[in-house]
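Colleagues,

For the teaching module next term, I've prepared a clean inverse folding example: a structure given as tokens, and then the sequence designed for it. I'd like students to try predicting residues themselves before seeing the answer, so please don't circulate the second half yet.
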């Protein structure tokens, strides 16, 4: 089986999931984007794929889960 890679990425004040070179979804929080990616990753695991899931850390001045600054 192949490799399924999911990355949580910022898009303006929203978060999205990058998978296979395509950006999916507009989520208000990093956590909600992660939950969506985790559900997709779970399915990929059941299908026998190796899975990589990455979430960026918080940048200076950034709120814990959203793109708005504190």
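(Answer key — instructors only)
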């Amino acid at each position: 089986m192949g490799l399924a890679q999911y990355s949580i990425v910022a898009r303006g004040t929203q978060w999205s999931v990058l998978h296979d070179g395509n950006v999916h979804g507009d989520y208000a929080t990093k956590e909600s984007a992660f939950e969506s990616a985790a559900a997709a990753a779970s399915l990929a695991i059941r299908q026998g794929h190796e899975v990589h899931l990455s979430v960026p850390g918080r940048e200076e001045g950034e709120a814990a889960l959203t793109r708005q600054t504190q």
